[in-house]
Each structure stands twice: as C-alpha cells, then as structure tokens.
Amino acid sequence: MEQRSWTQTQLAKQLGVSQAWISKVCRGVADTGLARAQELLSRVGWEVRFSPSVEEPVERREFLAAAASVVFVPSTANADPYLDHNYVRTLTDSLARSRYELGGMPLISRALVHTRHVGALRISSLSTQLQEAASDLMYQVSVTLYDAGQLAQSEHAGTVALELAHHAQDFPAQARAYDALSRVALYRSDSTRALQYAQRGLRIPDLPASRASSLYMRLGRALVSIRGHDRDARNALETALDAHGLSPFAEAALGGDVAIGLSQLGEYDHANVLLRKAADAMGQYSPLFQAQYLGRQAQTAIRAGRPGLTAEYMGTLTRALPFISSARVNTRVREILNRTKQWERIPEVHIARERLHGMLAPETTSS
Predict the structure, then answer these.
(1) Which is more confident, 35 or 115?
(2) Span 241-258, mean pLDDT?
(3) Which candidate among 51, 130, 133, 259 keeps its CA 20 to 30 Å from the CA of 82?
(4) What is the pLDDT of residues 197-232, one digit of tens each?
(5) What is the value of pTM for the model shown?
(6) For residue 200, which of 176, 233, 221, 224 has the smallest C-alpha distance?
(7) Burial grade of 258 (CB within 10 A; 0-12, 13-18, 19 or more)
(8) Helices 248-264 and 268-282: angle between axes, nearest 10 degrees
(9) What's the rounded Cα separation, in Å, for the pair 268 and 287?
(10) How many Å apart are CA 188 and CA 190, to the nearest integer?
C-alpha cells in the first residue's frame, strides 16, 4: 500500500479479498498465515523468502553448493535423477529444512512427487547406497505429510521407508521408520499399533542413543493411552529422558515430546518445565517445532486448570502462527480455542482467544 500509494479498497481489489479483511490485517486483528501470504503477495509482484539466521553460514553454503552440484552432474539422456543417491540425499536435506522452516502444508505436492518417483523404482535392483538414500527421503516425506495432516499418505511413505531400510539392512533407518509409523498410529489414537511399532524399533540392535530415546518416548506415550499402564508409561518416558550424547536439537525435541506424555499423566509442573525449555530452544532451529511446543504448553496449562498461564501461552503462540503452515498446529489451535470457552469471561483469556482466533488463516478458521 505504501509503495504504490494504494488505499485499502484498491489493495483489496488487487488481491481479490474484502476491504474489511485488509483492515483487520492492518490492525493486527487477523493474519494471512504464511502460505496465503506467499500467494497474495505474488499477485502484486512480491515474494516471501526465508533464510534462517540460526544456520551457520558455512553450513548454508555447503548445502547450496551440494544442491547446485547435483543439479548439473552430467548424465545420459533421459536418466532418472532419482537413481543418483547424491541427488536423493540432497532432496532429503531440502525437504527437511523446508519443513523445519515452514511446516508441512506448503510441501504436500513436493512430498507426493517424491513418493511417486521412489514408488516407480524397483527396490530390489537398487544399490545399497541408493536404498539407504531413498529410505531417508521417504522418512522425511512421511513426517512432512504427517505434519500436513495427510495421515494415509504419511503411513504409506513410512512403510516404503521401512521396506527400503530392510533391503539395505540399515538398522538405524529401520528404527527411524518404525518411529515414524508409531507417530502416525498414535495421532490416529491407535495406541496398540503405536505400541507395537515402538517395540519393534526397540528390538533392533545397536541403536543410536537419539533413536532409542525417541522410541522409548513413543513407547511411553502409547502406554499412557492404554488403561492400567501408567507406571510402565512413566518408566519408558524416564528412560527416554536419561539418554546421553544427544545434539542440542535432539535433546530439546525429546524433552518436549516426553512432556506431552507427562502432561497426560497429570505431571503438569514437570511437563511445563520441559515444554518451556523445548519452546525456548527450538526458536534457534525451527519455527514449526517452536509453535508445536507452544501449543502443547497452552494445552498443559488448560489441563492443570490455570487460565492465566493459558492466556500467556496463547499470546506467545499467536505471535508464532504467521511463520508456519501446519495442519497439526492448526488443529491444536482449534482445540485450545474450544477448551478455553469455559474461561471466556476472564478478561485476559477473552483477549487471548480473540487474538489467537484472528491469526488463523481464513480457510482454516472455524465458524
């Protein structure tokens, strides 16, 4: 508007939206969400770019150099680039980085393209290197589609990742695929199946500490949902937290994920401490993960019956929403809004609800 000296009405006409909605955005009452912002700005000659400041410059340069090198590798005419294991690994890195920054929803099409190409390969005829690389890619496809709410496709990708890992005899990749499948089953409230996947993963020998701890976390959260297994669930979650030698990212994510199980067990104070650490730490790595743990903080405060603390966490979550596009986070926001109706007459909760609701993109706002 400022650059082109447009009125709100003129901008609304150019974007194909109402003037009232433009007014709300200008006043900070509503927000486009990242995916819609990209779409709208492209109509008037602007684009959104993300360049995470948390990455070390050398890491960023190395990644870009790797991406450029695999694009221009000489090959025979009509060769399938998905038969180049270096190319597949660079696709995997790109998908993971984009998910950490944006969330899964803007990446659905890209993830399904990868699924189609890998699905067309004859797994048994591939080299071990390519089987391992393709398994890594399909794991990232699985967790991307999971975040986007595409659970059937996510489960399929996890199954393909597991098949490729078995052919390659890659034990860590097998454990990772079981982790992904347990995650999807748990989100579907299929606790028994989530438990079985976690147990299968834990039976794999010589697991890295990060993968074993993640599987114990899945095991504990599955047991939480099965009546009469609270003690076993707590033991599994404590075992997960006892892991040593994790990277700062893995340690923060693990603590946040364990906290979800502890919250379900009624251990609200411990869960809140872990979630706060996870949300603070994730600000250095991933807007998506940070928003997820902020949402979990609000849900934990709701379970604990603390409206003031809930309003505080809702306010922080409101500020995080415009930077990501995640079906899981959107679902969590709607759950928070629904469960805080009971405190609607408390002023700080009322204000927090209005602002949080206003930050949902128009197509995801509930009526």
Answers:
(1) 115
(2) 90
(3) 51
(4) 999 999 999 888 889 999 999 999 999 999 999 999
(5) 0.76
(6) 176
(7) buried
(8) 150
(9) 24
(10) 5
Tokens of residue 196, six digits = 């079985």
CA–CA–CA angle 160, 188, 121 (5° rounding): 10
Among 7-11, 69-73, 215-219, the range of highest mean pLDDT: 215-219
Say which range, 44-48, 174-178, 186-190, has the weakest mean pLDDT: 44-48
The C-alpha atoms of residue 321 and residue 316 are separated, in whole angstroms, by 9
Q: How many domains does the chain have?
A: 1
Place of tokens 């447009």: 6
Structural domain span for residue 273: 247-367
Distance of CA 43 to the CA centre of its chain: 28
Residue 278 lies in a domain: yes
